[in-house]
Write a structure and sequence with these properties.
- 4 copies of one chain form a homotetramer.
- In chain A, strands 1-2 form a two-stranded antiparallel sheet.
- Chain A has 5 helices and 2 strands.
- Helix content of chain A is 59%, strand content 7%.
- Chain A has 2 domains: 66 residues, Arc Repressor Mutant, subunit A; 39 residues.
- The first copy, chain A, is mostly helical.
- Chain A starts with 12 loop residues before the first helix and ends with a helix.
- Chain A is elongated.
- The interface between A and B is medium-sized, with 29 and 30 residues.
- The structure holds a DNA duplex.
DNA sequence: GTGGTCTAGACCACG
DNA sequence: GTGGTCTAGACCACA
């Protein structure tokens, strides 16, 4: 199963599905122009309401990760055009977190060295 | 006014209040053992229901930012004991964001240099 | 009825509900990922206000005994992951009680033998 | 200062005072028939309302830890007669905690050996 | 239907 | 006066 749901996460199911497909598309697991599972098929395998899948797909379209062709299905957009925009969003989020660390008295250089220590493989 | 509310942010009012006091306590604007505004007083100045304030204060207690004495008031915990724990939470959040960047093909060193370029004053 | 209320105990109703569900989850009566009664349903069967149930469920979430999915319900966390943490809390409480006994002049070994006499089946 | 108050503990101030004197009396720091500080004196040193002291002293009398002589003051009862009763209460509390540990699957002998490991000096 | 937030107003114990 | 609990009822997003 490519998408997993957590009923206890607090995150709405449709957003969990959206996040799952975003990751699959951005990482290339789902290739450009590849067809996503049909609404009914995915609803069945995930054992949830088709409306929820429908809503997730609508969101993926709105965010530009997929495009639908009525009667034919919904298809993934190529990842290259999306990666840059997604990275921009993430850097923005990290900026907010760094600001919080600065607010409570940390130095920027110390933060960077902490990140190196903690997350560099 | 120490706390400001944004009715259009989507963030629940009680969480906006929690976040506001967290910042005030962590930054030392509210000193250790200083009394927070009373439930009714803050409800009045913010023009919202006392229950919403109550809920925010309860959340601050749960997260260890304040402690209450029924009949006396609610009092701030010292910021020093809280800063380290808070920083840990923030670093953890940044770690997740960095992981997303790595997942879409960025190199760790490039991420760090981006952070330096974007956020170093 | 899984949960019973005592209106004369002095313990707030929402905490009685929390304690009740904690015991049911820790003892495995409520299995992992099992759905708890809906807020409105439980409010109806216990004949109390839905807000009180809501508050109890929120507390269960805060303490890690359950997690919710808006629109779906609230679901129990597995007991195995909780038992160890819960035991730690209880041992800590017992430690405080033992300290009181030591303070009033009892010997540790005498305390242990008292416990054996009183509580060993 | 023999009695210390914590405005953030959630425990009512009058009970904190009661607990403080109980410990002082049980441990013998306050001797039999020793006079407790006057209401006004203690209220002044603790910087709290005299009514709160009054209430604490009433509670100490009710629980048999002190006796008042109108116009003369309030005096500690001898600790020997109290220790046994207090120990009984504490053993009862520990019994409840042990029951919780049994309920979540621990063996009695394991609990005892845990207590030995954790709390034996 | 579900959980989550907010308001309004009552009542309680504590100080 | 203070914080804490509970009820009643409304409205929202989610499934």
């Amino acid at each position: 199963m490519l998408i997993s749901l957590d009923y206890r996460s607090g995150l709405p199911l449709y957003l969990q599905i959206v996040e799952g497909f975003k990751r699959l598309i951005l990482s290339g697991v789902i290739a450009e122009n590849e067809r996503l599972p049909s609404v009914r098929e995915l609803a069945s395998t995930l054992a949830i309401n088709p409306n929820t899948i429908q809503r997730a797909y609508r969101e993926l379209e709105n965010e530009g990760f997929a495009g639908s062709s009525p009667g034919k299905g919904i298809f993934a957009v190529g990842s290259n055009s999306l990666k840059e925009r997604e990275a921009e969003i993430i850097y923005n989020d990290i900026g907010k977190e760094i600001q919080k660390l600065l607010d409570i008295g940390n130095e920027f250089d110390d933060i960077i060295s902490q990140l190196n220590t903690r997350f560099k493989k």
